[in-house]
């Protein structure tokens, strides 16, 4: 299989290493708007290079991975769909979920498969939690708790264009809740603070720490915790509580928590410090799944429609924070 990769920044270079190691990938063609990034990857890995996305898509690739800047996602997806090339794209498809709907409709009309990057779907523990819910062994699910705590904020330049903590960070929790429960979110209430953090958060009207309550269609509730300042490490977890049993993903030795229970040594491992560390296996499974999508063996495991649904939750959370009130997903989706 011959694949293309557009975008060789932090996540793109990571994907290049993963893709060249996959047995299904016989050749990888890479490109980036920054020539030095292409040169660095070409010097380290057995890849072919292209001078532009257009040249890459015309080079006979069977599929393409899009890891370029967010503002380029929609244009590159449209180009891939127009060329009839299955695509994997990092989130978000577009900053405005309404604009992503048009991309989804185009891909459906052309019959081109598109997979969006939400790696927690491919984490073994998150998948096992989903199976536990689907099997009914937890009974009636009443509470979900999802956590994403970053050790430190991204650079200020990134924060200024990220769209805020709900669109950039919490979307992974929102997707995990939908994925594990199989339910849609109907209402959102969010709060947050920028107290004590970098002044850039207040300058851009964002927060560095947020709590969000999601009401699911069954009436179950999900509680989402996010922060940019978790000094002990990178913390990604999910709990599902039902009337018969409870399960947790991410409750392992490298969990960045320190117990205050006398005599307790768990967790005792070195805390995770980066998302590519915590979710390395999930990223590999995610891209391996994309090769199955390209080969036609499976449908997309995370569609544009999934990304759009998560985007509306993020919009509702953003409005809820600004207006200090519960916001329904229908309110922002149908506006």
Automatic annotation (TrEMBL):
Domain (Gfo/Idh/MocA-like oxidoreductase N-terminal) ranges: 2-118
Glycoprotein listed as a keyword: no
Recorded superkingdom: Bacteria
UniProt keyword Cell membrane present: no
Keywords of this entry: Oxidoreductase
Residue stretches making up the GFO/IDH/MocA-like oxidoreductase domain: 126-247
Listed Gene3D superfamilies: Dihydrodipicolinate Reductase, domain 2, NAD(P)-binding Rossmann-like Domain
Gene Ontology molecular function: nucleotide binding; oxidoreductase activity
UniProt record similarity statement: Belongs to the Gfo/Idh/MocA family.
Official protein name in the record: Oxidoreductase
Species for this entry: Nakamurella endophytica
């Amino acid at each position: 299989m011959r694949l293309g990769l557009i975008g060789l920044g932090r996540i793109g270079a990571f994907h290049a290493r993963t893709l060249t190691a996959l047995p299904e990938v016989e050749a990888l063609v890479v490109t980036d708007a920054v020539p030095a990034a292409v040169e660095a990857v070409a010097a380290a890995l057995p890849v072919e290079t292209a001078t532009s996305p257009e040249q890459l898509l015309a080079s006979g690739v069977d599929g393409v991975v899009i890891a370029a800047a967010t503002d380029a996602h929609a244009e590159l997806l449209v180009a891939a769909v127009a060329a009839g090339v299955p695509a994997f794209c990092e989130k978000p498809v577009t900053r405005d979920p309404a604009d992503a709907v048009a991309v989804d409709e185009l891909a459906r009309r052309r019959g081109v498969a598109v997979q969006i990057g939400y790696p927690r779907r491919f984490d073994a523990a998150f998948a096992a939690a989903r199976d536990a819910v689907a099997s009914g062994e937890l009974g009636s699910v009443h509470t979900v708790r999802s956590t994403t705590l970053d050790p430190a904020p991204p650079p200020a330049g990134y924060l200024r264009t990220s769209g805020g903590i709900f669109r950039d960070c919490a979307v992974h929790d929102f997707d995990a809740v939908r994925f594990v429960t199989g339910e849609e979110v109907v209402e959102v209430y969010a709060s947050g603070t920028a107290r004590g953090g970098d002044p850039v958060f207040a300058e851009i009207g964002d927060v560095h720490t947020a709590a969000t309550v999601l009401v699911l269609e069954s009436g179950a509730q999900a509680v989402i915790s996010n922060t940019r300042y978790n000094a002990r490490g990178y913390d990604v977890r999910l709990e599902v509580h039902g009337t018969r049993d409870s399960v947790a993903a991410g409750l392992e030795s490298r969990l960045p928590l320190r117990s205050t229970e006398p005599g307790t040594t768990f967790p005792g491992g070195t805390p995770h410090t980066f998302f590519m560390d915590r979710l390395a296996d999930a990223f590999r499974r995610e891209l391996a799944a994309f090769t199955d999508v390209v080969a036609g063996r499976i449908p997309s495991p995370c569609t544009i429609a999934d990304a759009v649904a998560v985007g509306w939750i993020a919009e509702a959370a953003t409005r809820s924070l600004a207006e200090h009130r519960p916001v329904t997903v229908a309110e922002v989706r149908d506006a």
